Amino acid sequence: MRTLFIEAYIKEDIEPLLDNIIKTVKEKKIGLVTTVQHIRNLEKAKEYLENAGKEVHVGTPAKNLKPKQGIYAFHPGQLLGCDASAAIDIEEEVDAFIFLGTGEFHPLFIAFNSDKPIWLANPLTKKVELLPEERRRKFFAKQAARMHHAEEAKCYGIIVSTKPGQVYLNMAKRMKEQAEKLGKKAVILLSDTITPNDLMNYHEVDCFVNTACPRIVEDQPFYPKTMINGTELSQIFDKLSTETKAKSL
């Protein structure tokens, strides 16, 4: 079924918020990001902050992917829940990020990929506050635990979503081959919507590998076995391959 995505914008006077940003954020080199609801205010925010002496950068989503595979943001500076490439594009050029939007879901994905400070600038409440470092630490602690369990697994269930833009079957096939070269087992599981109940019957699988939206692993407590992302499994395989080569010398 074809899907039509219609952008909806919030009409809000952001000048009071921008004034609070100028008063609160001390870093000079700023990476400005937002969600589609506020995308029309991004250029105004950039000009306003630059007039106040800030150096403002707006990144390009998936700039180096041509043609793009998967679901990526469309506008410069735009974040999706599973795409922070607009931020990563400018990560080396900025001292901090400012997220123009509501909630922590979108800026948290930046935090998983960058150690730069992230300021949350809420256009509705006009509040400006720093993303708590504790949220970042909790994610990496949980990631370390998941990867430890995944490294010990003997059989991987590599999940491939059939949703448009999330079909990474070739990646799954390569990971299956890598697993088998390391003496492990792997099966490829095709699914449209990935839910915990769908995975209950795969008793032989020790660890599920997600190749769809990377935020799925944040629902780890609901899944019957350890769930890691494909990128994390690649790191594990690299480590195991290195250890195997070292033992053979």
Describe it for me?
With 249 residues, the protein is of the alpha/beta class. It folds into two domains: 15-131, Diphthamide synthesis DPH1/DPH2 domain 2 (Rossmann fold), CATH 3.40.50; 142-248, Diphthamide synthesis DPH1/DPH2 domain 3 (Rossmann fold, 3-Layer(aba) Sandwich), CATH 3.40.50. The protein contains seven helices and nine strands, in the order H-E-H-E-H-E-H-E-E-H-E-H-E-E-E-H. The longest helix is centred in the middle third of the chain and has 20 residues, at 133-152. The radius of gyration is 20 Å and the shape is elongated. The termini are far apart. The mean pLDDT is 90.
Using brief descriptors, characterize the structure shown.
five-stranded mixed sheet, Rossmann fold, 7 helices, about 35% helix, about 250 residues, four-stranded parallel sheet, elongated, 9 strands, about 15% strand, alpha/beta
